């Protein structure tokens, strides 16, 4: 209510100032709306797994004299609880990225380090899907950023490339320098995304129908996290995709020359 009255009182100031005030209010309203939507979406998305956990716990109680059944329900309970854990941690990450809080861990980040860690985080998934991940391109590039957030963003793209590829497929992770930018491209030859959905897949909790029926277990938050993570770094995410042909997601960030010597990052982190 209070911001509107600012507009009402804006008559004496110059048109330019009025415009600035208006813009500021629109931005504030937009943020407030985003926050409200986020809480609503989140509560809705949490209801399903929480409901499942409750039902499974009840099923275990009533099946207590049948060890076979208890084991079966307990297995499903563990799977649901794991998914709930993944969902909550993603929600927290996204909410942190969307908040006005500054990124605190800024430093010169080696893209080699980011790609290595992102690949490691998806190694088990690639293995169990029988997918070969091929890494290539330029080495020794740096950006200014938060290494954990960048690892998560690239990891999410690799996770999707694996998840939406046919078993036995190939996924590529390529890095290149383009003028004063670094591009990290993740390519698959999987199901692809229809043009009409290409913008929407970056919305939180959005999942293309095709994928919904093909694969359970996703959260619909991965790409939203990628988008916000990259935006917080002043970069952008580009998408090329054709249904049936595959997809390439490219993260573009400003390149920096590392402050220290090129060898400064050689001590590999564990
Ligand atoms: P999810 O957890 O469902 O994968 P994401 O936010 O990561 O959530 O992705 C949103 C939707 O975008 C997915 O449900 C899927 O429909 C589509 N998508 C994302 N990555 C790919 C890809 N590499 N190939 C095809 N579809 C994809």
From TrEMBL:
<feature type="domain" description="Histidine kinase">
    <location>
        <begin position="41"/>
        <end position="257"/>
    </location>
</feature>
<dbReference type="GO" id="GO:0000155">
    <property type="term" value="F:phosphorelay sensor kinase activity"/>
</dbReference>
<dbReference type="GO" id="GO:0005886">
    <property type="term" value="C:plasma membrane"/>
</dbReference>
<keyword id="KW-0418">Kinase</keyword>
<protein>
    <recommendedName>
        <fullName>Sensor-like histidine kinase SenX3</fullName>
        <ecNumber>2.7.13.3</ecNumber>
    </recommendedName>
</protein>
<dbReference type="GO" id="GO:0004721">
    <property type="term" value="F:phosphoprotein phosphatase activity"/>
</dbReference>
<keyword id="KW-0808">Transferase</keyword>
<keyword id="KW-0902">Two-component regulatory system</keyword>
<keyword id="KW-0597">Phosphoprotein</keyword>
<keyword id="KW-1133">Transmembrane helix</keyword>
<dbReference type="GO" id="GO:0016036">
    <property type="term" value="P:cellular response to phosphate starvation"/>
</dbReference>
<keyword id="KW-0812">Transmembrane</keyword>
<keyword id="KW-0472">Membrane</keyword>
């Amino acid at each position: 209510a209070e911001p509107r009255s600012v507009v009402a009182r804006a008559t004496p100031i110059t048109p330019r100032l009025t415009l600035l005030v208006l813009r500021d209010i629109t931005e504030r309203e937009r943020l407030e709306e985003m926050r409200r939507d986020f809480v609503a979406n989140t509560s809705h998305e949490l209801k399903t797994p929480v409901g499942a956990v409750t039902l499974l716990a009840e099923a275990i109680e009533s099946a207590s004299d049948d060890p076979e059944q208890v084991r079966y329900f307990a297995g499903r309970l563990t799977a649901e609880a794991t998914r709930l854990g993944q969902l909550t941690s993603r929600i927290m990450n996204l909410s942190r990225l969307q908040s006005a809080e500054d990124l605190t861990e800024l430093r010169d980040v080696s893209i080699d380090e980011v790609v290595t860690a992102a690949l490691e985080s998806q190694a088990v998934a690639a293995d169990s899907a029988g997918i070969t991940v091929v890494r290539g391109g330029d080495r020794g590039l740096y950006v200014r950023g938060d290494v954990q957030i960048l690892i998560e963003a690239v990891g999410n793209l690799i996770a999707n490339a694996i998840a939406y590829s046919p078993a036995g497929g190939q996924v590529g992770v390529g890095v290149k320098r383009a003028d004063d930018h670094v591009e990290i491209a993740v390519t698959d030859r999987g199901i692809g995304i229809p043009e009409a959905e290409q913008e929407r897949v970056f919305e939180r909790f959005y999942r293309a129908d095709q994928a919904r029926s093909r694969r359970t277990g996703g959260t619909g938050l991965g790409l939203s996290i990628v988008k916000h993570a990259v935006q917080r770094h002043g970069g952008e995410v580009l998408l090329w995709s054709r249904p049936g042909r595959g997809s390439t997601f490219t993260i573009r960030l400003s390149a920096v020359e590392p402050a220290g010597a090129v060898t400064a990052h050689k001590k590999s982190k564990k």
